[in-house]
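Lecture 7 notes: from sequence to structure.
We start with the chain below.
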Amino acid sequence: MITGVGTPTTVLQLGETTTRTVATTETGTKTWSSSNTAVATVNATTGVIIAVAPGTTTISYTSGTSMSNSVSVTVYPAATATSLTYAQLLQMSEVTTALVGAGLSATATNKNFTSGTPGVATVNDTTGQVSAAGAGTSIITYVGKDANGVVIEKGTVTVTVHPQAAVGTVPTVPAPFSVIGWGSAATGYTAPGIGQSIIWSVTNGTGSATLNQSMGAIRGVTAGDVTVTYKIVDNATGIVAYKSTPVIVTIPNTPRVNISAPYIDGGTIPGTYAMSTNVNLTVAIIGENNSTVTFSNPRSNDTSIATATITGPNPSGHVYLNVTKVGPGPAYITFDYTDSNNVTGTMTWTFNFQ
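Predicted structure tokens for the same chain:
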């Protein structure tokens, strides 16, 4: 009887397990031999088998008492080298997980992944899911076996975990004038450098809003708080260089109107004006879905500088705020506006007269 050849999990395979020891319960002197030494050799005295090439050979012995026995041994070819890939850039506090090994052989029913540096990246030993642990690099090793323990394929990939982004300056993000209006462009943020881009984002909270990527300005949708952040990203690598602290912006609970910057005498408020001014309110303030906005109650904080009236609508449907200069200095002109749901808001503009 021959023993010691092993089980299918200890197969002879080039590049993997290339030696095994064969034994027998027969006592006394034994001489071992291989029927095909081009596939595997065997030490005549010790029974140590050495794989040489893929194929099958018969390992046998003859004892000093003229007893003999044999066993068939298969040598499997070397495993296929495969190039592992992982889908995403890994960066602390940004993208921290990725899947390694997409597209591996379906024949490899027993997959095993290991990380060379778990302090940088850990890996699920069966799924290949990598999780970032710290900045640096780690070599992920993969071995895929079939049901008989034969290594079908294997490979490595170097995973780089990038450090956490630096903290960008806290931006100023103006709230819109009205619940559905646009706010002004953001200011005070860390500007992107050469080869970098800024990406703004808004997260809805008790309120909701949309965002203009080119300016970092927000437009209200519903009243309440929203959170605005930005990050500076390297265009070539996708690495986040800077990331801002979140900024809470409150969308006002005002009439549902769009308010744009009003034009007066060819300029926008604020400005310096030598004469009385006339503002087309129906251009500066428009109701949601172009619904009608009603204007009323114009007033000046200092009638010795300016007075105000509202006229219209004229035959074209326009309503105007007429500001009449009385003397030099700043006058704060306030008026009310009411949307189609009868919700009223107040607007104040400053007029600086020479």
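Points to note: The first helix runs from residue 281 to 284. Helices lie at 281-284.
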